[in-house]
Each structure stands twice: as C-alpha cells, then as structure tokens.
Amino acid sequence: MVGNPAHEQEQRMLVVGAELDAARSIMDMLGFLKRRPAFVTFDDLADELETESLPFSAATLVSDGRVGLGEHQSAIDGLAARLPTLLVLDYPRGDGDDSYRHGKAAGFASCMHAPIALNQLRFELDRLPAPRGNGRAVRRTRPQHTLVGQSYPMRRVRQLIERVAATDASVLILGESGTGKELVAREVHRTSNRAAGAFVPLNCGAIPRDLLESELFGHEKGAFTGAITARPGRFEMAEGGTLFLDEIGDMSLDMQVKVLRVLQEQTFERVGSNKTLTADVRILAATHRNLEAEIERGNFREDLYYRLNVFPIEVPPLRDRPEDVEPIVGSILARLEAEDGISLDFTDQALVALASYRWPGNVRELGNIVERLRILYPDERLDIDRLPSRILGADNVVLTSGDDIRNMERAPGDVINGVRLTSAGVDLRALTTRLEVRLITQALSLNDGVVARAAKMLGLRRTTLVEKMRKYDISSD
Ligand SMILES: Nc1ncnc2c1ncn2[C@@H]1O[C@H](COP(=O)(O)OP(=O)(O)OP(=O)(O)O)[C@@H](O)[C@H]1O
C-alpha cells in the first residue's frame, strides 16, 4: 500500500506566483513537507487550468504585491473553484489589504502573511479541505489535526475556547504534557478574529536562555556575536495574529519581566536597538507546571501570572476522559492513512484496553503507540495481544465496556468478563492489589473521604475498609 501512485498524485501541490524566485522559500517548505510542488506563473495559470483534470490536490498562491491578485482574477477564481487554495501574502502587512479582501472573496481556503514558519504551513495544509469535483484529484477527506473528543471535559474545553476566542484576552492553557495544549491554542487562534493573521508558536523551554530574548524580540545586525543580519523576532512575526508561548513556566525571571512589559504597554525593542516597536499581538501561554507553586518558590513572577491568567483553560489528562481514546485513535489512523495509505484497525477488546490505560504521556503517548503499531503491523486488525505490555500490565485492568462499569450494580460479574490473559502472563497478586487500591481510592474520592460511605459503595464493612486503608497506606483525604 505504501507508495501507491494514485496517492502520490494526491499529494501534489500547484504553486502559482509572479516568478519562481518569489515562490522559492514556500516551494522549499512544501518539498520538505512532501507536497511535491510544481510551479506555474500567473501568466501561465489560465493555460494550466485548460487541463480537464488537474493532477494536484491543492494549490498555493504567492502574491508578492507586484502582481495584484485582481489582474489575473478570472484564472485565480477558476483555480480556487477547482482546488483548495492557500493564499500567501508576501509583502508588508497593510499594503495589500485590498488584494486580501479580494482573496477572501475569491474563496481561498486559507490566507497567511509571510514570513511563514514550517509548522504553521504544515498546520494550514492539514486543514485544507478536499479538492472540489476535480475528477482525478478527488481523494479521501483528509482528517485534520483538530481537537477530537466529545467527553464532558473536552466539551467543556470547547465551550471555554468559544467563549474566549472572540475576545482579545490572554489565555493561560494548563495541563499535563501531551494533553493537547497547543491544539487548544491553535483552536483559539483559528476561531478568533485574528484568524487571518499568523499563529506563531514558541517553546520557551526549548530555546537556550541567552537566545530567547532575540528569538522573541528579534535583533539588529551586530547586536551580539553571530548576529550577522538583522532579524525580526516572534512578536513581529505574530503582528496582527497570535503568539503562543509554550512552557512559559520554563522562562527565566528576566525574560518574564520583558514579556510582562509587552503585555502591559504593547511595546518592545529588538536586541541591539533602542527603537521602540509596537506589538498588536494576542498572547496565549501554556505550561504543565503549577505556576502558583512556582511563584511561591520564587521562580515565576506573580504579576505576569495574573496578566496571563485572565482566562485559564485546563486541558484534562487523557485518563480522565477514557471515552475520547477511541475517537482520537480513529482520527490519528485516518490522518496517517491519508498520508501513506497504510490502514490499521483494532478489535473492540483492544480499544477497551487502550481506554483503560492510564496514559501518563497523554494523547502524545497514544499517538506514538498507534504510529508504532502501524509500522509493526501494517494493514492488520489488532487484538489485545498485539498491544505493548505496559498497556496490559498490572497497572491496567481491561473491562469489556464503559457500560459494564455503569451496570455494576445490576451485574457485578460483568466487570471482569473482559479481562483477558495474554501470553505475557500477569502477576496476579500485584494486579489484585492495584485493583483494590484503585477502587478504594476512587470510592473515597467519590465520597469526599467519608470512609463509611466509601465502604458501603465497595460492599465492605467499615472496619474492613479501614484495615485495607492501613495496609495499603491510603488516607481518607
Ligand atoms: N484532543 C485531541 N485530538 C486529537 N489529537 C490530539 C488531541 N490532543 C492532543 N492531540 C495530539 O497529541 C499531540 C500532543 O498535543 P500538544 O502538542 O497539543 O500537547 P501539549 O499539551 O501542548 O504538550 P506539551 O506540554 O508537551 O507541549 C499532538 O500530536 C496533537 O495533535
């Protein structure tokens, strides 16, 4: 299935521009993203469109300001009607507003201002819709990198996104690593009135301390050793759009002061310059750290915390929304299959096992496991015995379905019907202990630590539960 020629054709991208040089950097990025770009000038576009079935899945149109979009209007309209088209405006913001308005009217799938970051382009490409009725180029709908899951906690997250998107408020996105904080940030941007501007992410924890300042604010030529040319920073790149400061908890105190100033005064300077620039940028920040604890430890500024925390969104860990596991697996499989044609399926038992696992690495860990299984078992339907041992380990009890848990009162025996022993075997004592500990802890927390009520819920005498709590060192608070 890999390398299916029809599929390769699906991935081709037509790039339209005034001349090849103007489109060079976007062509390079598209090549890197395996979109097999083919270039055509505005002048030749009409001829290209004569072909009955275009061998492309999408198009990118680069307007560098010298050729206004209006000049080739009918060809461009024809293109946008046949292929989902990404519009790249490669000239200073403000100059091309008319062309941009025209661009919207011509029905472009998306519009971005240069300079464009690779991951920004990848994200936009993932969101492009399928080609419209173009014969040969019709393909499966490409599922996108979007927030999947209809569990109550995720519906709540979506409600919060909806509520805050329309405002310009700063948002602090909290949650464990891999829960989808960046996706939440992208969703806020996508649904905000800054959506036509850039979404510029920056992982503050991944950039060495001494480079972070110039990464954020840019620098002038000669500002420090190695600053051979002047460079804009992320604030400038995000002008009119959104800057996503990931892992803000890892930012040093002196950088926190500088970010706070932009939040308060909307101004900053490039490193090595005393010219003050203004920033029309919405800030979204995320962290897996407990910032209040970091404030107490003196690692995070309280004033910045309150500035950022205008609207907090907490993304729940995957173990708190097991019903999302199956749809997320489905969406990951569909997306990857659209990319390389390899399919994979799971039996119901395997899906239940995946949903019962604790997922310490959250959705990222789930995605990695699914990707690995596709490589190991392409085009197979996987049962429970194909899953990694840690998923079937003593930490995990496999239940037949969520309904069985809810029906426990009526048919307690059903809960264990789905437990399956694999050839790897199991440490029964450890498994039983963990099951006991888990159910006791849950019963206590569901009953606000009231032991008598928890005991009733577990069908135990109070004294027996107290004994077990002592044995396993479980406290009631
Ligand atoms: N609800 C979801 N539906 C589909 N995919 C998801 C969902 N949540 C997360 N993902 C995927 O999981 C991976 C990790 O998500 P993301 O990078 O947004 O997490 P994060 O919380 O920002 O992680 P970190 O704290 O490590 O930066 C990404 O590949 C993302 O596409």
List the helices and strands and how they pair.
Elements: H1 5-10, E1 13-17, H2 20-32, E2 37-41, H3 42-48, E3 58-63, H4 73-82, E4 85-89, H5 97-105, E5 110-113, H6 118-127, H7 152-165, E6 171-174, H8 181-190, E7 199-203, H9 209-217, H10 234-237, E8 242-246, H11 253-265, E9 267-269, E10 276-278, E11 282-287, H12 291-296, H13 302-308, E12 311-314, H14 325-340, E13 345-346, H15 348-356, H16 362-376, E14 381-382, H17 389-392, H18 402-406, H19 428-446, H20 451-458, H21 462-472
Helix pairs in contact: 7-8, 14-16, 19-20, 20-21
The protein binds adenosine-5'-triphosphate.
Adenosine-5'-triphosphate binds at residues 145, 147-149, 175, 177-183, 246, 286, 288, 328, 331, 363-364, 367.
Features:
5-stranded parallel sheet; Rossmann fold; nucleotide-binding; Helicase, Ruva Protein, domain 3; binds adenosine-5'-triphosphate; disordered N terminus; Sigma_54_int_dom_CS; 477 residues; alpha/beta
